[in-house]
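Lab notes, practical 5.
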Amino acid sequence: MHKLALVAVLAVPALAFGQTRPAPKPPPPVTKINLDGDTVDGARKVPGGIIVLVDPQVKHSSIIQVRESFADRVLASSQELR
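Output from the prediction step:
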């Protein structure tokens, strides 16, 4: 019984080696570009016109001021209650 189990354990990996690989995919078709009738110029094309230089926007400070203390408001409201 042990011999049969040993043969089965050793035979199973051997079956995996017997598998064939799938056929490789054919390479994609080659694209050919014909430039016989065209003139290819390597010069850089830039738009014509006038360049207008503008100053950068000025960063303004905020006109909203955050109160640090409300003590004067609290005193004024407490005097109104009297």
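Observations recorded by the TA: The mean pLDDT is 79. The two ends are 107 Å apart (CA to CA).
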